[in-house]
């Protein structure tokens, strides 16, 4: 066996798994799947047998299983998730976290965030002693049982999924089970809800200028919240016209792609800090953007800069059930889907912000730039003449549609077309009645052009 991993290196990997979701680590199988006989290590094999005690602190729950396959010895380390403690290397105080398929060393700030996240995980494991079985959403539980193909009854399924504790035929419901399957989670966990607020304008105003035109609160278990809120949002969002350059046609599309806002809502419900009570998930709907706010900072090792690629399940029990339901994808792929959906719709890149110990996702639309006052004759003319326009003319028209208005300089900088050519095309558009020039000066270099209004 050439160059086996050092016992200390395996300890690092095990620490990362202890600090994350647990799992299984196999030692003795090469990257190509070939079995390697650990017996050839001789006396050094004892270093691997006792590495749990030599390198990991505090004491952990890891079981070592020695297995022989085809007369070759391999080690299998079974790592139990620990909800309360952070684990370190005993010899150098280093801590690691297993995220997706990589093991990362943690800084002091990362360790503080991990301790916070473990408090949240402990919250979803807490038992609610006074849970009333009459509050259980049996229809939803039966739907879940059928979806996962479980042959036993629903309560036994919850026990198998570690959402309840079973003692002497009595089921003790954890907070994760209540959030997922109670008819009224708010009865036991305050602020386990979603609130939608629609504003008239681009800013939230107070007092005599109070501009809230819709304020709707949703209270239910997480799966039904997802369904109820998504149904409501579909109606609340507007449609706008999108110029498809390939076809030269104006297509009606939603204000925001559903894949983006739905993923954002699911992620908020899946990863929020439910131990922070008093704050509902807010969906604030402004004229130009959608803001979805969530309690608690970003999970360990995740930052605003790397959120698209880093993965960490803050509420793993909840995440796994939502994955079973089909609401979330494994390894937090939903964040990347939000980016992809916005990019496909030619909308702004999603913006994450962390303020006042909360995380905000901002999705910006193009409604404010969408020319609702353009007469139908302009749309018709562009679509009818599209095939006769050259690439530069098409680019100019699309730029105006996306940005509402522009100067010659702006078009020259963004489209790499000469100013003389741009002026010639703009003058033709004005003469044809589809654009207007907003300047009284005949030789104004900063004259603004836009599509003709009604």
- Counting DSSP E segments of at least 2 residues, the number of strands comes to 20
Just give the CATH class of the largest domain: Alpha Beta
Task: Tell me, briefly, the overall form.
Answer: globular
CATH topology of the largest domain: Heat Shock Protein 90
Quickly give the structural class: alpha+beta
Beta-strand percentage range:
15-25%
The tally of helices reads: 15
Determine the N-to-C terminus distance.
80 Å
Spans of at least 5 consecutive residues with low confidence:
none
Number of domains: 3
CA gyration radius, whole angstroms? 29 Å
Strand order of the largest sheet: 11-10-14-15-17-16
* Biggest sheet record: 6 strands, mixed
Q: Can you name the CATH architecture of the largest domain?
A: 2-Layer Sandwich
Mean pLDDT rating: 89
Helical content stands at: 25-40%
Structure, described:
With 454 residues, this protein is of the alpha+beta class. The chain has three domains: 100 residues, Methyltransferase, Cobalt-precorrin-4 Transmethylase, Domain 2, CATH 3.30.950.30; 250 residues, Heat Shock Protein 90, CATH 3.30.565; 76 residues, Orthogonal Bundle (Arc Repressor Mutant, subunit A). The protein is 35% helix and 22% strand. It contains 15 helices and 20 strands. The strands form seven sheets. Strands 11-10-14-15-17-16 form a six-stranded mixed β-sheet, covered by helices on one side. The chain has a three-stranded antiparallel β-sheet with strand order 1-4-3, with helices on one face. It has a three-stranded antiparallel β-sheet with strand order 18-20-19. Strand 16 and strand 17 form a beta hairpin. The termini are far apart. 31% of the residues are buried.
């Amino acid at each position: 066996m050439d160059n086996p991993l050092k016992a200390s290196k395996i300890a690092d990997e095990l620490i990362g798994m202890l600090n994350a979701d647990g799992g299984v680590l196999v030692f003795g199988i090469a990257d190509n799947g070939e079995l390697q006989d650990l017996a050839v290590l001789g006396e050094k094999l004892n270093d691997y047998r006792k590495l749990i005690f030599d390198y990991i602190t505090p004491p952990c729950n890891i079981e070592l299983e020695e297995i022989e396959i085809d007369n070759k010895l391999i080690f299998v380390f079974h790592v139990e998730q620990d909800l309360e403690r952070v684990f370190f290397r005993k010899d150098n105080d280093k801590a690691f976290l297993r995220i997706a398929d990589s093991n990362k060393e943690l800084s002091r700030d990362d360790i503080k965030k991990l301790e916070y996240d473990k408090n949240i995980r402990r919250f979803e494991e807490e038992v609610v002693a006074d849970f009333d079985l009459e509050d259980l959403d049996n229809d939803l539980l039966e739907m879940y049982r059928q979806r996962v193909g479980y042959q036993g009854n629903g309560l036994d399924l919850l026990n198998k999924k570690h959402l309840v504790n079973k003692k002497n035929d009595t089921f003790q419901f954890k907070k994760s089970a209540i959030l997922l399957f109670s008819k009224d989670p708010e009865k036991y966990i305050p602020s386990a809800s979603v609130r939608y607020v629609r504003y008239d304008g681009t800013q939230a105003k107070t007092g005599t200028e109070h501009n809230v035109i819709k304020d709707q609160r949703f209270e239910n278990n997480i799966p039904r919240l997802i369904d109820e809120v998504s149904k409501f949002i579909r109606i609340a969002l507007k449609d706008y016209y999108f110029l498809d350059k390939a076809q030269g046609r104006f297509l009606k599309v939603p204000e925001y792609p559903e894949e983006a806002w739905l993923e954002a809502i699911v992620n908020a419900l899946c990863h929020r800090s439910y131990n922070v009570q008093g704050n509902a998930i807010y969906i604030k709907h402004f004229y130009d953007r959608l803001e979805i706010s969530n309690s608690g900072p970003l999970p360990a090792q995740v930052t605003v800069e790397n959120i698209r690629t880093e993965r960490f399940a803050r509420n793993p029990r909840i995440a796994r059930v939502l994955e079973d339901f089909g609401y979330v994808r494994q390894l937090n792929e939903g964040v990347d889907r939000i980016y992809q959906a916005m990019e496909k719709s030619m909308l702004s890149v999603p913006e994450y912000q962390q303020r006042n110990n909360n995380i905000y996702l901002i999705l910006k639309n193009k409604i404010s730039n969408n020319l609702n006052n353009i007469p139908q004759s302009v749309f018709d003319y562009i679509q009818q003449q599209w095939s006769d326009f050259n690439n530069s003319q098409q680019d100019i028209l699309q730029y105006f549609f996306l940005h509402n208005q522009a100067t010659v300089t702006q078009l020259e900088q963004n489209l790499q077309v000469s100013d003389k050519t741009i002026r010639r095309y703009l003058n033709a558009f004005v003469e044809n009645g589809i654009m207007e020039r907003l300047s009284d000066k005949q030789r104004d270099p900063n004259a603004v052009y836009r599509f003709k209004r009604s």
